[in-house]
Amino acid sequence: MPDYIAWSPEQAVAVIAAEADKEGALMPILHALARTFGWIPDEAVPLIAGILNLSRADVHGVLTFYHDFRRSPPPRHVVKLCRAEACQARGGDALAAHAERTLGQKIDAHAHSAGGHENVSLEPVYCLGLCASGPNALVDGRPHARLTADRFDALMAETVR
Ligand code: FES
Predict the structure, then answer these.
(1) Same domain, 34 and 61
(2) Which end of the chain is more exposed for a tag (fewer CB within 10 A), N or C?
(3) Which one of 125, 136, 146 would you pick to mutate in the ligand 1 pocket, going by the greatest count of ligand atoms within 8 A of its CB?
(4) Planar angle of CA 132, 134, 136, nearest 5 degrees
(5) Which runs of consecutive H residues, i.e. helices, occur in the chain?
């Protein structure tokens, strides 16, 4: 997971100001805030609106339209299970059901907040290029192959605390 800095309105203003002169600055600002903090709180909306001289509704509308902008603090760990066909054929569906039960949340590309386990986001990924060794997953960006329920549990025990 990237190293984000803690949300700070003062730091956010600096990030916004650095992008404000760009053509169509709103999207570059939103991306810059997401890269810097890992999420964009509602508190950012009036800051952006004020600097760009836009309405809060306009900024809020764009922020909420793009689901990839996380609007709550990121979890410490991201578990991405491969949900593509080759991994499904190798037991990926059973593994996914097990992971959902274990972590207490549904696999969701746009959850952007923890469900049952506050430190983990359980998300899908569609093929890691390791199809022959599925089912596969990325845990905090590192690939793990040939996962079983037991191997998944062991991985979670050593990764997610
Ligand atoms: S289908 Fe899962 S790695 Fe290719």
Answers:
(1) yes
(2) C
(3) 136
(4) 130
(5) 9-19, 26-37, 44-52, 56-65, 85-87, 93-103, 149-159
For ligand 1, whether the C-beta of 138 sits within 6 Å is no
C-beta 121 within 6 A of ligand 1: no
Helix (H) or strand (E) holding 109: none
Q: Quick one: 86 and 155 in the same domain?
A: yes
Question: Whole-structure pTM over 0.85, yes or no?
Answer: no
Per-residue pLDDT of the chain (161 residues; tens, 9 = 90+): 567 899 999 999 999 999 999 999 999 999 999 999 989 999 999 999 999 999 999 999 999 999 889 898 888 888 999 999 999 999 999 999 999 999 999 998 765 543 455 688 899 999 999 999 999 999 988 999 999 999 999 999 998 76
Residue 19 is part of which domain span? 9-65
CA 136 – CA 109 distance, rounded (Å) = 17
Q: How many CB atoms lie within 10 A of CB 118?
A: 13
100 and 49 both lie in a single domain = no
Instruction: State the distance from the centre of ligand 1 to the C-alpha of 51, rounded, in angstroms.
Output: 44
